[in-house]
Structures are given as structure tokens and as C-alpha cells.
Design a protein that fits this description.
The chain has 212 residues and is mostly helical. Helix content is 78%, strand content 0%. Keywords: Cell membrane, Chaperone, Membrane, Transmembrane, Transmembrane helix.
């Protein structure tokens, strides 16, 4: 609305009233919609924070149960966490816990399926790499070394390069390919610091390959 600077005060007032009669309803509706959107966003944020806090509390209870070796309680609580709070980061953490418990129970197939499902929701690269490591170990235990090699070839290991190289070495051993296994173990050794105790395990694997 443009006002004539030379118009009288009465004319300006009348122009404002006329503009308000024509546009006031639209302005009010816009204000109401904006206010409702703001309140809705704030309410949703509070709801999300509340759910995350509840999930965190339950996850802490699971960790406390782990310290007490309460396996049944861990499994049931992790299942509840996954079902009720799957939209929080702790829902993903519960999958990792459940997979570990499934593995401890000897149910490697269920553990594998859980980890494969977790990869669909994991967004942080470091967490993805950890899941791939656990999944690769399970696949090796299930007798699928070629699947391990195929999967790891598609992943950038980053700071987990030594662990990934070792798993490739284990897969090559399972496939009866000692030369490739030796190269992988040597790569894994190069990725470790000189003082790391885990070097001894890798060296033992290399020594075993040299034995007739």
C-alpha cells in the first residue's frame, strides 16, 4: 500500500482503513497460520527431545544390565527400545546389542539380518564401518568368505583399515588363498602402531601361513 505523502491525515487514515478492509482477513489468516506453525514446530521439537531422552534412559539401563551379565533383561530391553524408539539413534544402538546377543545364543542368521537392516538406517560413516566389521565377522563365522571380500571391497575403511585388512586376510585363508592372505595381513600390520599388542596376533596369523 503506497500513501500519497501530500494527502491529508484524514485521507491517509481512510486509505489505511480501506486497505485493512480489503486485506485484513488475509493478514490475520497468515498470522494465525504462522503462529500455529511455530507452535507446532516447538511442540514437535519438545516431543522429539522427550523421546530421545526416554530412549537414552532405557539405553543406560541396558548398559547397566550388561555390567551385571543380565542377558535376558538386556535382550528384552533392547527389543523394547527397538520397537518403541526406532526413530531415535538409540534404536540403532539396540540393533547392535540384539545382534550381539543373537550371536551369543548361536543364532548367527538372525544377527546377520539385524546388522544388514541396521546399515539401512546408519548415517554416520564411522558407525557404518563398525557395522560392516561386525557383519563381516558374522559372515566368516557362517562360512561365507567370498561374500565378505565382495562386501569389504565396496567400503572405504578409513581409520579401520587395519581391521578391514585383517578380515580380508581371514577370508582369503578360508578360501585357501595363502598368498593373498599374507598380503592382507601385512597390510594390517602396517596400519598398526609399533607398540600395539594386537600386532602379536597378526604376526601369529602370518607365521601360521608360513608353516607347511
Amino acid at each position: 500500500m503506497a500513501l500519497d505523502i501530500y494527502a491529508s491525515d484524514q485521507e491517509k487514515s481512510e486509505a489505511i482503513r480501506q486497505w485493512w478492509r480489503e486485506n485484513g482477513r488475509a493478514v490475520l489468516v497468515g498470522l494465525i497460520i504462522g503462529l500455529l506453525a511455530l507452535l507446532g514446530l516447538r511442540s514437535w521439537t519438545n516431543y522429539e527431545q522427550s523421546r530421545t531422552s526416554e530412549a537414552s534412559s532405557l539405553y543406560q539401563q541396558i548398559l547397566a544390565a550388561k555390567d551385571q551379565d543380565a542377558n535376558a533383561e538386556i535382550y528384552n530391553s533392547a527389543e523394547h527400545l527397538l520397537q518403541e524408539y526406532s526413530d531415535t539413534p538409540y534404536g540403532l544402538f539396540s540393533v547392535l546389542i540384539l545382534a550381539k546377543e543373537d550371536q551369543a545364543r548361536g543364532d548367527l542368521e538372525t544377527a546377520t539380518e539385524r546388522l544388514k537392516g541396521a546399515l539401512e538406517y546408519a548415517r554416520h560413516p564411522s558407525l557404518q564401518k563398525v557395522i560392516y566389521l561386525r557383519l563381516a565377522r558374522l559372515l566368516l563365522a557362517m562360512g561365507s568368505p567370498q561374500e565378505v571380500l565382495t562386501m569389504l571391497a565396496e567400503v572405504k575403511p578409513g581409520s579401520f583399515s587395519s581391521a578391514y585388512a585383517e578380515l580380508r586376510g581371514d577370508a582369503y585363508v578360508a578360501l585357501g588363498q595363502p598368498s593373498e592372505a599374507q598380503l592382507a595381513y601385512q597390510e594390517a600390520l602396517l596400519g598398526l602402531g609399533p607398540s600395539e599388542q594386537y600386532r602379536q596376533i597378526l604376526q601369529m596369523k602370518l607365521d601360521n601361513l608360513a608353516q607347511p
